[in-house]
Every structure is written in C-alpha cells, then in structure tokens.
Amino acid sequence: MSFKLLRLVLKVGHFFAITPGFRKNRTTCPEKIYAYGVVAFITLGVAVSVFYRAKDYAKFIHIKAVVQITLDATLYVQNIYTVLTALTKKPLWFKLLKNLKMVQNHNNIREKSHYCLFVASNCFFWSYQSYMSYIFANIMGLEFYKQFAIEYFQMYVLFFVNFAFFVVVKMLLVRYRNLTKQLRFKLRFFEKLGNRRLGFVQRLDQIQFDICLLKEGVDLVNDIFGWQILFLITYATLQILVYLHLAVMLGFQDIYMIVYIIVVIFWYTVNASTNIFLCDEICNEGQTILGISYSLEKLKTGDEIQDLISTIKDNFPRFYAARFFVINRGTILGILDAIVTFLIVMIQFEMTQNSTNINFVSTFFKIPFYSTLRPINLLVQIILDVILLILNVHTILTTITKRNQWCKLLENLKLDRENNSSFVVANVLFQLIHVYYTVVFTLLLGVDFVKEYAFEYIQLYSQFILYFLLFATLKILLGKYTQLKACLMEEKRPMVSLQVIKAQIYSLRETVDVFNDIFGWPFLLLITFTSLQIMVYLQHIFVKSRPSPATIISNVTVISWQAVCTFYNILLCDSVAHTAGELLGAVYSLDLELKHIENFNDFVTALKDNVPVFAAARFYAINRSTIFRMFNAIVTFLIVMVQFETNYSQP
After folding, report:
1. Coil, helix or strand for 146?
2. Does residue 162 have a pLDDT over 80?
3. d(C-alpha 521, C-alpha 502), whole Å
4. For 301-358, how does the pLDDT look when each residue is reduced to its tens digit (9 = 90+)?
C-alpha cells in the first residue's frame, strides 16, 4: 500500500463525507453543512425503509426479528458515526499520515500504488449488489426498492470504511516488517562477522524512534477506527448468521439464491477476517522484533540493547475494538462461536414454530453415506473430512516450505541419547486399534466400508506421525527446561554462570517460537479434528438407536486414542510452560550473595520476558484450559443433537 492509494481513498471518501480530505486544512462551514446533509439523507432513507419493512418484520419469529433489527441498527449507527468522525477526528488523521510518512522517509521504503486493488474491490462490491437487485427484484418487484434502496449507499459506506482501515493497517504492517528486516540484517551481520561498529548504536536509536512513531500510529488507528471496527465485526457476524440460517432453511431449491448466499457470506468473511489477520500480523511483527532484540543481546551486551528491548516492550502494538476487546486471531474464534450458537438457536425456534420440515441440505449430495445425514450432522462430517485433508496437505507442504525452520529446530534440539521404544509401542497401538475398527465395520457394512474409507487409513497414519513429532519435540523441550531448573537449584549456587543460563533461556524461547511456526496450524487442526471426531462418535454411541457392542467398543477405542494423543500433547505444552515458570522461583531461592552480582536483575527480567507460550496458529494459547474448552464444545454439541433427534422423531 502507498500514499497514492491512501490519497485516492481519502479523496473519494471526502466526496461522500465519510473521511477527511488528504490536504491539511480546517473544517469549513460548507463541509459541515454537507456532512449534516448526508446524515439527514441517511436518516430519512432509513425511516422510509423501516416503514415499508415493518410488515415483513412482524412475520418473523422473535429471535429472528431481534437479529434483523440489530443488524439494521448497527448499519445505521455505523453510517452516522462515520460521517461525524470525518468531521471531529480530522487532526488525528493528519497526525497518522505524518507518522507514516516520517517512518517511510527514515527507512527509504518504496511502496506500490495498488490502484487495481481499489478498482477490483469496488467492481466486486457493485457486481454482487447488482446480482442481489436482480434476484430480489424478480421476487419482490418494486417493493424491494422501497425497502432497500437506501442500503446501497449504507453498504457502500460500510465497505469504504473497511477498505480505508485495510489500507492504513497494511501501511503500518509494511513499516513494521521493514524494521524486522533491518534487525534481522544486524543479527546476521553480528553472527557472521562479530562486528562492533559504533554506527550500529546510532542505527538502533533510529529504530527505537520509528518504533515509538509506529506505536503512536497504532494508537491513532485505535482512536479513529475503534468503534468502526466494532460495528464492522458486529455487522459481518450478524450478516453471516442471517444468510447461513437462510441457506439451511431453503436447502438447494433455488440455485441462484444459493449462489448469492455464498457470495455474501464469502464477502463478509473475507472483509472481517482480512483486517483481523492484518492486526494480528502487526502484533506478531512486534513479537518478532522483540525476539530478534533478545538474540542481539546474546551477541552484544550493553545499555543500547537493553534500551531497545525496553522500548519495544513499552511500545508493543495492540489493536482494540473500541477498547471492548483486543483484535487478534482469537476474535475470529469468538465470531464463529457466536454464529454457531445463534444459528442453532434460530433453527431450533424455526423447527418449534413451523410445522413443515427443513429441507435437508444433504439431498444435494449423492454420496450414499452423506445422503443419510441430517443438516447439522452433514455439516460436521464435511468439516471433519476437510480438516483431515487440509492437515495432510499442510503437513507435506510444511516439510518443503519451512526447511529453514526445521533445520533451526533440529539444531536447537540436540540429544545425547536416542530412545526408539516409544515410537514402536505407539505404532503397535495405532495398528491394533485401526485394524479392529476396520474388521468391525467391514463385517457390518461389507466391502462398501473399504471402498469409502481405505484411503483414510493413510490419512490417519500421517496424522499419527504428526502426533508423535509433537510428542518427541515437546518431551525434549521439557527435558531441557527441567535441566535448567535443576541447575539453578543445585545447592542454591549454580555451577554454570547466569549469563550462560540466560543464553540457554533465549535459545529455548527461540526454539518454542520455531515450534509454533512449524506446528501452530497443525496443532489447531488436530484439536479441532479431535473435538469433532469425539462429537460424532459419542453421538453414534448415545443418540443413535441400539448400536452393537462391537461397534460401541470400536468407537470408544478410536475416540480414546484420539483424545489421549491430543490431550497428552496439550498437557506437555502446559508442563513446558509450567516448568519454565518455576525457573523464576528457583532464581529467587539462590544465595543472597549471588543476588547482588552484576546483571542479576537483567537475568530475572530475561526469565520473565521469555516464558514459553505455545499457540495454536496464534488463535489461542495451548494449555490445560484448552481441554476444558474442548469438553465444553463436545457437551454442548451432544445436548443440541439430543434435542434435534427429539424434534425430528416427533410426528
């Protein structure tokens, strides 16, 4: 992204009174009159729209009416707030532009204009709006325009604010990545040459200044866009919920409507998730810069490195949605949780109040097994199969695309002795469990079972190898942290110097970061797959009618194996983090004389700042609470499925 694109965005936004202009000047009286005129236009249009929609809203069930009214209110408030923000927060915009320009000049950053992205986004927006008009005008006639004409402008305001936020955050990300690139160059320079030039210190001062400017820029973005992002996330969540509900209720009767629903869900999903991922990526760049600074400290000691580390920690970037919550990858999980919960409730209300049955989505599929499933079972089964496929493909691609990370991981995890017995035992257990499962269901379903699930054996074995890689790596990490703890507690006076131990702590934290880079997404997929598989198999055991004893034993064995593999690796992650946390207690129990040596406080600070954190693709931290969240999801699903079975079984 570049200032050329931002200038274009601000010019177009200024024309619609939703952003200030690019030139720095005071708000004039005609601009205020024009802005208030836009507010009046939106308000009048919404009032007319509500008047014509009221009779349709009266037909909705209560929960659906609440969702629809909240959706309309969110869009209206967002539009009005956008226009007023363009008037009242003009100085903040120009302060943000100044900071971005200063960092660009300091680092000679060259940016592409990306005009094509703006044009393509606008084309896609108006294309799907035109398609929507074509579909609903054929269904509703002139009534459609009476009810929804004002939404063309409202939706464009929403889209434009979302795009403006994307451009600004992308510019911040480019500048953070440039600082990361500079520090990586310094690190490689010191590792290879051991250079100690004074120019290095001067350059660090410039980097610190840029970090402060960028943090101020992030704060300005939070001030300008904080409420906007809250509105955007809320609106996108409700829209996805409404259209998913519509898809489930309609089934696949009207292919044109289904295409429209898919396009709308795709549009709002991409809009919301892209900006959330960008915010998270900036936070991750801040964490990367901090990690590189710690690596520099291993090679060069001095106040300048400590000052850099302190500056980074005090100016760490974080994005907030009007200070209600931090915007990171976990926000996406919160959105999904809200969508799934409300969708289930809305479908339940619809089934209770309507005598007609929902059109099964499964009729669209011709696969024998899928065609017997009800909508929610079908959705879970498809997600389960897709996750397993993605996991297998990702595992293969990771070995190709992340060779440097693998080499770094293996270099840091050096072993004095080898033990292959656990791998042999795990293989034997895997084979026994899946051979028994295959025999039971082959006798039950015949050769069709082999046709449908033969390839899945290879997929599951690939998953097993991944589980064992996680297990082996985490066991080595746990052993190394345990050795450090034993070293610190050795007669209250460690035989190894604190500087050496600090270097080992930095190395282990770097190893954990590499582990997260390699195994973050696989761990997320494994946890999700395990939760869904346990849901499916427990449903077969408790909800389905009269399963045979052999089937029950087979299902229990499979889910027990899957649960043990996942839970044990989660507990290993928690044990590594817990053992690393105990190092601080071991340090405080050292002899008093040792506590007065030089750099002791720096050592304690290094321990506090380098506690390992395992993350599932940065969506959430992996610890014991992860297991409870999995149980919560499983129990909730089973309760819902029992209720669904009860409703479907009623005449």
Report:
1. helix
2. yes
3. 29
4. 567 778 888 888 889 999 999 889 899 888 888 888 888 777 777 666 665 555 444 4
Residues belonging to the chain: 651
User: How far is the CA of 503 from the CAs of 296, 298, 494, 508, 648, in angstroms?
Assistant: 11, 6, 15, 9, 63
CA dist 289 and 295 (Å) reads: 10
Closest by alpha carbon to 151, among 131, 133, 124, 171?
A: 133
Could you give phi then psi for residue 326, rounded to 5 degrees?
-80, 140
* C-alpha–C-alpha distance, residues 626 and 631, integer Å: 9
**Residues forming a β-bridge with 621:** 615
What CA–CA distance (Å, rounded) separates 269 from 267?
A: 6
Total domains in the chain come to: 2
What per-residue confidence (pLDDT) applies to 543?
66
Exposed, middle or buried: residue 470 (CB in 10 Å: 0-12, 13-18, 19+)?
Answer: buried
Among 622, 643, 409, residue whose Cα is nearest residue 530:
622
Residue with the two structure tokens 């510019």:
171
Q: Would you say residue 349 lies in a domain?
A: no
CB count within 10 Å of CB 445 equals 14
Domain extent for 302: 3-335
Residues with Cβ within 8 Å of 430's Cβ and at least 6 positions away in sequence, in order, are 461, 464, 561
Kindly report the backbone phi and psi dihedral angles of residue 622, in degrees, each rounded to the nearest multiple of 5, phi listed first: -95, 115
pLDDT value, residue 473? 92
Nearest of 488, 422, 435 to residue 461 by alpha carbon: 435
Domain boundary pick from 318, 335, 352: 335
Domain boundary among 335, 369, 387: 335
In a domain, 346, yes or no: no
pTM for the structure as a whole: 0.78
Over 50: is that where the pLDDT of 260 sits? yes
Which pairs count as long-range contacts for 4-10, CB under 8 Å and 24+ apart, including other chains?
4/113, 4/115, 5/113, 5/114, 5/115, 5/117, 5/118, 5/167, 6/97, 6/167, 6/168, 6/171, 8/115, 8/118, 9/118, 9/160, 9/163, 9/164, 9/167, 10/93, 10/164
